[in-house]
Specification:
77% helix; two-stranded antiparallel ribbon; 2 strands; 90 residues; mainly alpha
């Protein structure tokens, strides 16, 4: 195994471990019923602080909506590219 492959494997394992650790922390640290309709939320203190700091405005709703649409368009573009490559190979 060359150095680049080892580095890529190491980074992949590290990112996977951080993702698992973050998921476990969200499920266990600071869980309180502060979400919409009394739902449980991890890191509730941080969530309430940010909510009180930013508030509930239409600007952030619009920003997250645009980011979400961009993500969906990106996925669709890659899907169409894959379909094109599949048809082109046959």
């Amino acid at each position: 195994m060359n150095a680049t492959t080892k580095k890529n494997l190491y980074m992949t394992v590290c990112f996977a471990a951080v993702s698992v650790l973050f998921t476990i922390l969200v499920k266990t640290v600071g869980v309180k019923d502060v979400g919409p309709a009394g739902t449980s939320v991890g890191f509730a203190g941080l969530n309430v602080f940010i909510f009180n700091l930013v508030g509930q405005g239409t600007f952030f709703y619009l920003v997250t909506k645009i980011i979400g649409l961009f993500a969906i368009v990106t996925v669709g573009a890659f899907g169409l590219l894959g379909l094109y490559m599949l048809i082109k190979e046959k």
